[in-house]
Amino acid sequence: MSPTLTIRPFRTPARGVAQVPGSKSITNRALLLAALADGETVLTGALFSRDTRILITALLALGFEVAADEDAQTIRIVGQGGRIPQTHAKLHIGNAGTAARFLTAFLALAPQGVYELDGDEAMRARPMAGLLEALTGAGCRALRADGQPATHFPFTLHPSGRLGELVVDASASSQLLSALLMVLPLSPGASVRMKGTTVSEPFVVMTEKMCTQFGRPLNREANGSWRCPQPGAYQALGTYAIEPDATAASYFIALPAVTGAGAGVRLQGYVKNGLQGDTAFAEVAGHCGATLTPQGSSLVVQSWPDLRGGNFDFNDFSDTFLTLAALAPLASSPTTIRNIGHTRKQETDRVLAMATELERLGVKVVPTAEELRADDKLSALTIHPAREALRAAAVKGPVEIHTYEDHRMAMSFGILGSYDLWGDGRPWIAIQDPACTSKTFPKFFQALEALRTQFVAVAVDGGAASGKSSTAKVVAHELGLLHVDTGAHYRAVTRALLDAGARAEDVTSVLPALAHLRLGSEISGISSVVTLDGHRPVDASLRSEDVNAAVSKFAALPAVRNFLLAYQRSQVALGQAAGFAGVIMEGRDIGSVVLPQAEVRVFLQADPVARAQRRAAEGQTDAVAQRDLLDSTRATAPLVCPEGATRIDNTHLPLVAVVAQVKALVQSVARPA
Ligand code: DC
User: Fold this and answer.
1) What CATH superfamily classification does 456-670 receive?
2) I need a surface site. Which of 250, 351, 526, 634 has the fewest CB within 10 A?
3) Ligand 1: distance of its center to the CA of 429 in Å?
4) What pTM was computed for the model?
5) From the DSSP assignment, how many helices (H) and strands (E) are in the chain?
6) CATH homologous superfamily for 24-241?
7) Quick check: CB of 554 below 6 Å from ligand 1?
8) Which of 56, 48, 51 is closest to 21 using CA atoms?
9) pLDDT digits over 561-597, tens only?
10) Where are the domains of the chain?
């Protein structure tokens, strides 16, 4: 067991980009489908955690070529079109439910072979019978050590290579059904019929959608059975992008409920209508008071003005019930979570574990842990508001929460512990065995810490083509900052002034044109993009020859500079509201005039020949030296190296080296809040 972790409550609102890993369910399905495809697929944004490593290790043991690159979050896998290279293997699948079920069905495709499968103690107790019975019906034998038919792990599988007409009882877990659906196309004429119903229907839909993505759509027929109209190997996809994990995202949707007003957490790439049913948690959170704003392909979570309870059916997205249950003691009214009976047979008995730990904190739950222990059919939990009780329970110091090797227990109570119960930052919750999050989210507690950092402003100044944009964009991307290019602001204004017939030499032609200008901002990826009258100007129109020639002249006019100053300063608030960890603004006068309080100031320079070459390489006609002269000799806000700025000459430095220097500067001032 890893050492207990005391959670430090947040004393300031959570801010920044939540580092959510790739979805476990999608990664493990994609690994299997890619292995059954007719060639190579590279999974991008893949999850690297205990459960996915277990499946990767198993595929390697079965003779597949799999190359995982954890830094790049990619997994390259060469599919064998339905063939399993090794006919004999011994596989240990730990407590990975998806790997256990998916691999068992996968191995049933082998026309011959002997496969020994085992798992942890907890896995040996998890449901397998429905799947094993279905496969036995198709002539595949799963035998215990004593030669009797197995209903649980461990067992030895003697496959027959044919599936035929399978009948599956998936009432205990939808994974039992998903496992069979994924192998269905590889066995012509096969069908899968479900006995009764299953839990967590969205995971079945995820499986169906992914079979379609890999080129083998399934038909779900009215009588509750599935067939593949065009059976065969899956198609290798070249690359396949894994969505960020919606269950993991639930913790960061919840966090702003407990960290006070002014929070802004950004979930980059949060796919609302993608493959994952757990995105439904966002709707429940909305009912309980969350403020959620979709922004392009991101979701921004602000502080919840109000945290209230409610009555919810979590059957379809039950992995997220623990997130809400852990918040519930802080709500203003009771929270009832229904239809979660199947979670009593997951990593642990999750309903009982949740009730036990909430009671440890003095919270009233119905049924009680004792009642749950007496009746394993109970499938709902009501949690009562309990702020006072929490204080009473924690009066002697942090309460140690038991996590039962369940990653979701650790993460959920990590969020509750982030609440400043005493109002003075004193910790009140400690998490036993925090490393159990490695099952799906190895860096969860680091990701939580990262949202504690105060908003940081970075000013990057320098002459034309000194590398400001390239550097600022990469730093923004890597540190979760909003990137603002003020040169583009001057270019957009210049474009509009030229179009209106204004001339820099005649300020009386500039003022009326400026009065009509309506600037706005749009966030695109990590950058704030200027809009003119609600429209984004085309990039080429801002880098045209006439703009290049006129921009420094217009930029020298105090009227133009004043016009842009308030707009540029407002970008800081924009970045805060949109959940960025800070802002990185580039230009000529950022550290000196626009953001003189910026915590980090950088001045980039390169020799004029190198800079002219950079522009020429971009295919631009741009008299770099001439613009620099105008920019640095004007009376208002000239280009200077701001006081206290770090000078970086990048004439001979590669971009990665400059980025590393700037990142180090930012990290050295990033004060934990
Ligand atoms: O960074 P850039 O080359 O796109 O900038 C275009 C012009 O805008 C630059 O020559 C001068 C002006 N500018 C400025 O005066 N102050 C800034 N903060 C940014 C740009």
Assistant:
1) P-loop containing nucleotide triphosphate hydrolases (3.40.50.300)
2) 634
3) 51
4) 0.80
5) 24, 30
6) Enolpyruvate transferase domain (3.65.10.10)
7) no
8) 48
9) 999 999 999 999 999 888 898 999 999 999 999 999 9
10) 5-21+247-443, 24-241, 456-670
